[in-house]
Amino acid sequence: MIKLEEPSVELFPAYREFVLEMLARGETVWNPYTPSENENPAEFVERILRRKENPEPPLVAETVYWPIFDGSVVGRISLRHTLNDNLRKMGGHIGYEVRPSFRRRGFATEMLRQILLTPKAREIGDLMLTCAPDNIASNRTILANGGILTQTIYVESIGADRNHYWIRLR
Ligand SMILES: CC(C)(COP(=O)(O)OP(=O)(O)OC[C@H]1O[C@@H](n2cnc3c(N)ncnc32)[C@H](O)[C@@H]1OP(=O)(O)O)[C@@H](O)C(=O)NCCC(=O)NCCS
Fold first, then answer.
1. Could you tell me where the DSSP H helices lie in 54-147?
2. Which of 36, 50, 69, 87 would be a feasible disulfide site paired with 83, CB 3.0-4.6 Å?
3. Half-sphere exposure of residue 57, counting CA atoms within 13 Å on the CB side?
4. Does residue 103 sit within a domain?
5. Domain containing 32: what range?
6. pLDDT tens digits for the chain (170 residues)?
7. Pocket lining: 109 vs ligand 1, CB cutoff 6 Å
8. How many domains does the structure of the chain reveal?
9. How far is the CA of 37 from the centre of ligand 1 (A)?
């Protein structure tokens, strides 16, 4: 069973393994979730935790979790507390990745299930998730957690389509 933990200096070495494996496999880790070369673990963790209360505009507040399985950080999942215009087109309330060597073991499905149980997710109530129509794994992850596909739109800024799902917790 995985456990969602908020970032901490203690977990930083395990998180670094996740980032290094993603980058080595040519996968994307969004800049705000990547420690920079001249940043020490405490500064990096503090930068992520600050996003929960005081995000730098135009970013919205978000809670970031590092899912732990058997001492390893197997991915990253974030809950955005509100939507802005960009997130309404692409991004939605929840974003996630699973470390390549831990994929196809149900971790994404479980991470999403657990984040939906958090008080903040229940307070938001109606959660939007987006993903590429051809991202089979992510579409299935969302569907397995009660996602309802409401539309597929063309997103001009990336020149690609995105499926829009809603998960209603109320
Ligand atoms: C999408 C992602 C998070 C899925 O992680 P995961 O832990 O492998 O997912 P799960 O094991 O929970 O699998 C979820 C479902 O997708 C299916 N699946 C997983 N990988 C698949 C693949 N490569 N091809 C087809 N189906 C796949 C699983 O069989 C499962 O389906 P089921 O519930 O019908 O059995 C992971 O592939 C990833 O990190 N991708 C890159 C980042 C990304 O796409 N993030 C989401 C952006 S919207």
1. 85-89, 107-115, 119-124, 136-144
2. 87
3. 0
4. yes
5. 3-124
6. 999 999 999 999 999 999 999 999 999 999 889 999 889 999 999 999 999 998 888 889 999 999 999 999 999 999 999 999 999 999 999 999 999 999 999 999 999 999 999 999 999 999 999 999 999 999 999 999 999 999 999 999 999 999 999 999 98
7. yes
8. 1
9. 30
Q: Which class for 166: exposed (0-12), middle (13-18), buried (19 or more C-beta within 10 A)?
A: middle
Residue to mutate, 2, 73, 98, ligand 1, most ligand atoms under 8 Å from C-beta: 98
Residue 127 identity (one-letter amino acid)? L
b/e map of 70-79 (b: 16 or more CB within 10 Å)? eebbbbbbbb
The H-or-E segment that residue 18 falls in is helix 12-24
**CATH code where residue 112 lies:** 3.40.630.30
CB of residue 113 inside a 6 A radius of ligand 1:
no
Task: Output the CA 132–ligand 1 centroid distance in Å.
Answer: 12
Between the two ends of the chain, the Cα-to-Cα distance in Å is: 26
From atom 27 of ligand 1, which residue's Cα is the shortest distance away? 137
Domain assignment present for residue 58? The answer is yes
